[in-house]
């Protein structure tokens, strides 16, 4: 970490620890430099980094101030710690929410997809064009499961740069992370088996379980710190859990991330009970802090951790190229893929391999992270400004979701209906659970460039929230 | 049908009915013309068509002769008409056979994929390049399930040209036919349900059933005429069959096709018992006769027929773009897709839509059919020349598979092992069944351009067959 990054991190921690609170004026650049023994230039860089991440704002002629983040974080919902659903319920309703987001007339706060304008890269288009010319008769066969070899090597190299030992041989290229998770689940379970999931959870996990006739045990999940390990331990003692499916970083929908310590405890706990871990890490690259958080997969010893990710949230939505680092399940996952989708689309595999070869991915990612941090901050500010103070909002360190909690008696389904009537979609809490514990919660997509249209939509939501019973 | 096509069809039927037999000299062009009241030019076109389809051969200075097709067709294997497998067995071995075909050193007679050189089309490459430029932020959303709208309209138009009423709204674009079949199976069954399949069957069907914990009833299937409807009727009376999965045309592995009459009887039988039909029609466009055989889907009345096909065998292997015309199951299939692979790869969907818009697909298909007929004929001739006369071989009217039957005591698994040791792959009968009824059968891929290398491989196989116990 460079000096300016160190200073930025110090200040950030101070803000998190309430040393500085929203609206406080920070020490001047000169003063900060003097106290820390750093050059003025270094301090300027630190402050600019913090500004780009939405932690502080510059006021002309005055200095830097702590940004008006809403400090009232949602609380984990306790009470019912465990819920075994004999059969997970599919909501046709989830499908309707997603369909609504396809309509360009609707403000897509309920969307699961990052703003597509973040990914309009001439370099990627060039890679696709170049693949069209390079296609040979052998290309189709060469890209069958486990998938494009160059691409698997690139992915293994990126693991290596994070200090992780993942062989290209245990990587299987899939049609996005959704296919890698679905195949992983099939590899480690049989119908009727029990799987531990987060509560609230990514609805794709609920639906995959339903489709494969698995039983779900929903584990309380903290909006900041991720899955509650005491609850998980208790569930393991109570139920014959075969696998655990969770997101270690910037969880969907809450944005929570597990600490290093918790990841260690999780991996140890699961290893002791021979439970496979499906680590859904699709948002892992979208961190706002200085370094990529290390996946639980880094702690894998027996090949029982299946690390699933993709390029859909970082580089090429719509290409449907993802992967799983599947440990000892890699051969089985190849076979399952061959009999469900045969292989991942060949031109898109080759285009991403070509793009990664020619460089520029890290530059793109840095820009993407900076923009997402800024956009999250803009949405936070609008929420802080317009929403009633009773609404609690999460403050994730990455990704592009905000999780909001209304008062316990207020219904986010009602808000969803009323907002849709005014051309705004949100993702209500009941999309993320089989029960009704999150009926007063909802998720917003914060990946869009801030605009008057969005500001107005937030104002409208604020008015609708005030009107809720 | 034009006059020359009519004449060609007449002669062809005469050959099939043994009016003319292999090696017979056909009437001269002049004589044929006189008898049929056709111009010499029309007769020349007929004879050229028959020649391109491998039915006849020209001998310089002499005239046209019936090609040396092997007349000994395999017989349907009776005996055990029904077999209920409580759990279908997956063969890791199938995976090995497919893997062997990836090695360019191996003669890929065992491959399931058509020769890739048949598909090297500059127009398709240009379509892919052009998509790279046309990609907009809205593309990803616009191509979510049910998939690219222009593509669905093109497909519906092609149905319409065959006189079929299929709305773009019941079409869902999928990652190849394998995904459309797998999603269709999930839409119409629950784990534990019973599904009628062909015997022998496409191994993908066996594997999909195993994966979804379904029970299989294997129905005797005739090498020429397809599924035995009496056996199916009997199975329906005996077992609680929920769905029937079969190939109406150029079935894999036998190459059989159902007659119009049989398709009608099938559809009526299934409708009476409220059984859904999964019609796998991936080879339907690869017909050698004058017209496309009409799918059973054309007879659908209650939306219970799910017609699954793709561009993988006809245009773009490796693109992984297929579809299902799903009748009333279309909404459910969209939801299932959204939770398993999210969507079909967007650039490949757009590229195929673009290609179809600019025309040339039918010209390509005509060339493809002509080449496949020629190549089938070349392989037939090599087999007739080298193999012992005890080996029976099928004579499909389309597709690119030949199905061969050794003597009952000879093992195609043994042949597979010995052939692989000499650098040749074949697809042994046990890949296509859960039992051992096809242990003396195997499938050959006839899609490759004939060459000395292939001729030598056939000679080697002939030697190995003679050496079998």
From TrEMBL, chains A, B:
Gene3D superfamilies linked: Aspartate Aminotransferase, domain 1 (3.90.1150.10), Type I PLP-dependent aspartate aminotransferase-like (Major domain) (3.40.640.10), Winged helix-like DNA-binding domain superfamily/Winged helix DNA-binding domain (1.10.10.10)
Keywords: Aminotransferase, DNA-binding, Pyridoxal phosphate, Transcription, Transcription regulation, Transferase
Signal peptide: none
HTH gntR-type domain location: 1-69
Pfam families membership: Aminotran_1_2 (PF00155), GntR (PF00392)
UniProt GO molecular function: transaminase activity
Protein family according to the UniProt entry: In the C-terminal section; belongs to the class-I pyridoxal-phosphate-dependent aminotransferase family.
PANTHER family according to UniProt: HTH-TYPE TRANSCRIPTIONAL REGULATORY PROTEIN GABR (PTHR46577), TRANSCRIPTIONAL REGULATORY PROTEIN (PTHR46577:SF2)
Protein name per Swiss-Prot or TrEMBL: PLP-dependent aminotransferase family protein
């Amino acid at each position: 970490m460079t000096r300016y990054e160190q200073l930025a991190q110090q200040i950030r921690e101070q803000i998190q620890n309430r040393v500085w609170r929203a609206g406080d004026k920070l020490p001047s650049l000169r003063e900060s430099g003097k106290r820390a023994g750093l050059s003025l230039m270094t301090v300027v860089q630190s402050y600019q980094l913090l500004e780009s991440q939405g932690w502080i704002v510059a006021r002309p002629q005055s200095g830097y101030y702590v940004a008006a983040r809403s400090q009232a974080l949602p609380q984990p919902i306790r009470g019912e710690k465990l819920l075994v659903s004999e059969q997970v319920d599919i909501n046709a309703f989830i499908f309707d929410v997603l369909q609504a987001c396809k309509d360009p007339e609707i403000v897509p706060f309920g969307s699961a997809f990052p703003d597509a304008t973040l990914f309009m890269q001439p370099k990627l288009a060039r890679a696709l064009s170049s693949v069209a010319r390079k296609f040979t008769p052998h290309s189709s066969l060469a890209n069958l499961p486990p998938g494009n070899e160059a691409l698997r090597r690139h992915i293994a190299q990126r693991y290596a740069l994070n200090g992780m030992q993942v062989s290209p041989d245990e990587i299987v290229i899939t049609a996005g992370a959704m296919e890698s998770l679905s195949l992983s689940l099939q590899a480690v379970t049989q119908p009727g088996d029990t799987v531990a999931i987060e509560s609230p959870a990514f609805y794709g996990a609920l639906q995959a379980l339903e489709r494969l006739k698995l039983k779900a045990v929903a584990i309380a999940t903290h909006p900041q710190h991720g899955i509650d390990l005491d609850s998980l331990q208790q569930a393991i003692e109570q139920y014959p859990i075969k696998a655990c499916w969770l997101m270690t970083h910037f969880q969907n929908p809450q944005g929570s991330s597990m600490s290093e310590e918790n990841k260690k405890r999780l991996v140890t706990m699961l290893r002791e009970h021979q439970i496979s871990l499906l680590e859904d890490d699709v948002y892992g690259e979208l961190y706002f802090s200085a370094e990529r958080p290390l996946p639980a997969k880094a702690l894998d010893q027996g090949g029982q951790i299946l690390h699933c990710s993709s390029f859909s949230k970082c580089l090429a939505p719509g290409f449907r190229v993802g992967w799983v680092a599947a440990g000892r399940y890699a051969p089985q996952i190849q076979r399952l893929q061959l009999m469900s989708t045969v292989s991942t689309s060949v031109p898109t595999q080759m285009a991403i391999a070509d793009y990664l070869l020619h460089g520029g991915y890290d530059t793109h990612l840095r820009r993407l992270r900076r923009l997402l941090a800024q956009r999250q901050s803009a949405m936070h500010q609008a929420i802080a400004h317009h929403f009633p103070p009773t609404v609690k909002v999460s403050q994730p360190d990455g990704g592009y979701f905000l999780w909001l909690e209304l008062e316990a008696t207020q219904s986010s389904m009602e808000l969803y209906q009323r907002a849709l009537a005014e051309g705004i979609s949100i993702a209500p809490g009941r999309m993320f659970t089989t029960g009704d514990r999150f009926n007063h919660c909802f998720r917003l997509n914060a990946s869009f460039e801030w605009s008057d249209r969005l500001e107005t939509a937030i104002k409208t939501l604020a008015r609708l929230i005030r009107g809720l019973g």
